[in-house]
Amino acid sequence: MEVINAIGRRKSAVARIYLSEGKGTILINKKDYKEYFPVGTLQYVVKQPLELLQVAGNYDIKVNLAGGGISGQAEALRLAISRALIKINPEDKSALRAAGFVTRDPREVERKKPGQKKARKKFQFSKR
User: Fold this and answer.
1) Per residue in 54-75, is it b (16+ CB within 10 Å) or e — as a string?
2) Residue 9 contacts by C-beta under 8 Å, 6 or more apart in sequence?
3) Is there a domain that residue 95 lies in?
4) Residue numbers of the domain that contains 40
């Protein structure tokens, strides 16, 4: 099996992955994924598509992660892994779609507007 690459995005995070047959190691920016994501919930998010299809120990994954925060990076990685698994076996797409791992979450931070406190919040109005 050749190396399969896929890309996943979430907020401003971008995950580029290279998936090949192996023993189940996940290296993110040359670190183990448990070291990169010390929080258990984020480790769970990363492993979700592999656990759903019961292929967690079959593939080695090398990841280049850039941008965003840790939760956005974890979800970008989940999307990238799902897309790579679909390239390997297209029949898995329906199971991954039902779990919600194939849809790219389009929500991004709205920009701050001038003359306002935040994107939508205004400064306090004073009548007098």
Assistant:
1) eeeeebebbbbbeebeebbbbb
2) 15, 76, 79, 104
3) yes
4) 4-99
Percent of the chain with pLDDT over 70: 100
Structural domains counted in the chain:
1
How far is C-alpha 111 from the chain's CA centre? 22
Average pLDDT over the chain, rounded to an integer: 94
pLDDT attached to residue 1: 75
Is residue 58 in some structural domain?
yes
- Is the residue at 114 inside a domain? no
Reference 48, options 107, 90, 11, 8; nearest CA is 8
Structural domain contains residue 127: no
Rounded to whole angstroms, the Cα distance separating 29 from 45 reads 18
- Please state, in angstroms and rounded to a whole number, the distance separating the CA atoms of residues 82 and 37: 19
